[in-house]
Amino acid sequence: MKDTAFRIGMRLSKLTESIAAVLLVTVIVMNLAQIYFRYILVDPLSWSEETMRYSTTWMVFLAGSSALFRGEHMAISLFDNVKSQLISNLIRMLVLVCIAAFCILLMWEGYPSAIDNMRQLSPATQIPMAIPYMAIPVGATLMLVNVLCLMILPKDALKKEAAQENKAGQDKAEENKL
Questions:
Q1: Which residues have C-beta within 8 Å of that of residue 136, sequence separation ≥ 6?
Q2: Mean pLDDT (10-residue bins), the chain, 178 residues
Q3: The pLDDT of residue 111
Q4: Nearest alpha-carbon partner for 54 in 141, 110, 133
Q5: How would you write the chain as a 3-class SS string?
Q6: Other residues' Cβ atoms within 10 Å of the Cβ of residue 1
Q7: What pLDDT, on a 0 to 100 scale, did the predictor assign at position 3?
Q8: Looking at residue 2, what is its pLDDT?
Q9: Domain residue spans in the chain?
Q10: Contact 4, 145 (CB under 8 A)
Q11: Burial class (CB in 10 A: 0-12, 13-18, 19+), 104
């Protein structure tokens, strides 16, 4: 069960990171194109700002899911040094339950909001506004899956995996030197 949760979380993280990376590159290219068209050709693109805004929203929610699984979000470490393993585990579970509840709230409100805006079109690109609105509930759903995986996994499972990946990377680098 723990191996399955770990594999699901890692695959989901890698997938969402890849999509977020493509969106980041897309936003950078659109921004550079907008600069070129605005200041060199003096004919700005009408759709680039809007597309960058929607792409950034999707990127943030997709990457946020991965950051949550890897424990890379900003956190308050007030209770990290608690000596009792039981209390430490209870605090961790309480935090994960609160995150899951917030994700459920985002999903509960987000899906109907996106569906309600299906007929509305964006001003410049003329896409249904449901597409940008769906970033919130889709991101919340991905975060919820990752939270459920984290609830199953032991606290230090990701640290052990990161140490193993780091060691494997160092071993491969040494092999390449030889």
A1: 61, 106, 110, 113, 114
A2: 82 93 96 93 90 95 91 76 82 92 96 93 92 96 93 76 61 66
A3: 94
A4: 133
A5: CHHHHHHHHHHHHHHHHHHHHHHHHHHHHHHHHHHHHHHHCCCCCCCHHHHHHHHHHHHHHHHHHHHHHHCCCCCCCCCCCCCCHHHHHHHHHHHHHHHHHHHHHHHHHHHHHHHHCCCCECCCCCCECHHHHCHHHHHHHHHHHHHHHHHHCCCCHHHHHHHHHHHHHHHHHHHHHC
A6: 7
A7: 80
A8: 75
A9: 2-161
A10: no
A11: middle
pTM of the model: 0.82
What is the rounded distance in angstroms from the CA atom of residue 61 to the CA atom of residue 99? 14
State which amino acid sits at residue 56.
T
Hey, what are 8's tokens? 């699901």
Closest CA to 62 of 7, 142, 144: 142
Q: Which two tokens stand for residue 81?
A: 């040094």
